[in-house]
Amino acid sequence: MKGCRQALLLSSSNCHGYSFLEFAKQEISYFLKKNGVSQLIFVPYAQNDYDGYTKYVREVIDTWGFKVTGLHTYSDPMNAIKAAKAIFVGGGNTFLLLKKLYENNLVNLIREEVLTGNLVYIGSSAGTNVATKSIHTTNDMPIVYPPSFDAIGIVPFNINPHYIDHLEIENHKGETRDQRINEFIEMPHANLVLGLREGGILHVDGDSLVLKGVAGAVVFKKTESKIEYPVGTDISFLLNN
Predict the structure, then answer these.
(1) Is 11 considered catalytic here?
(2) Which pLDDT value is given to residue 167?
(3) Selection from 199, 202, 193 nearest residue 157 by Cα
(4) Could you confirm whether 225 is annotated as catalytic?
(5) Catalytic option among 12, 125, 134, 136
(6) Is 132 in contact with 157 (CB distance < 8 Å)?
(7) Residue 16 designated active-site
């Protein structure tokens, strides 16, 4: 049933040179229209101000012709997800987001709904992290304790959003992002990692994965050098690793 899945996984909602979500407007709009979606539920769990966060997102996406409601406004989140055609899981703190998803019994439900083609998924930053195999490669601090690092699993690998491989300060001697990712992939439980650059979007269409947006990605595998993939590349082979 994985051939039914439909998802857009954004590195971030913000990208240098663009207003909020502007770099992804065309991709999101086409994606939703293609899937017959006119309304979507926004999941604001990665931040604490649910009303404010939802309002901020709604004011942008509503102007594109889609109606946005916040998941927190529904008395029964599980039934809301079951009845929805599309969700947008926003960014913030990945640990906070995953903890809240588990508390509301939504992790397995969202996985089932997406993989069977009943639910279209859009994620950004933390919302992208929780769509993957696990949250081991988030950049966020563990400010709360989710019951597990295991995530929704729309794709069978990890993503590192906001990936960057250059140092902005020349005299910086601390760890680099590459070092942190390589520490993870050395572990026996680790899978490959997709470093999604700022402005990058991963389009999941059944058994197809294509890089969209305005920036590409880097793939890290055990015992191999990282490989760069530009926008437009078909990286569907990652589904079989």
Answers:
(1) no
(2) 61
(3) 193
(4) no
(5) 125
(6) yes
(7) no
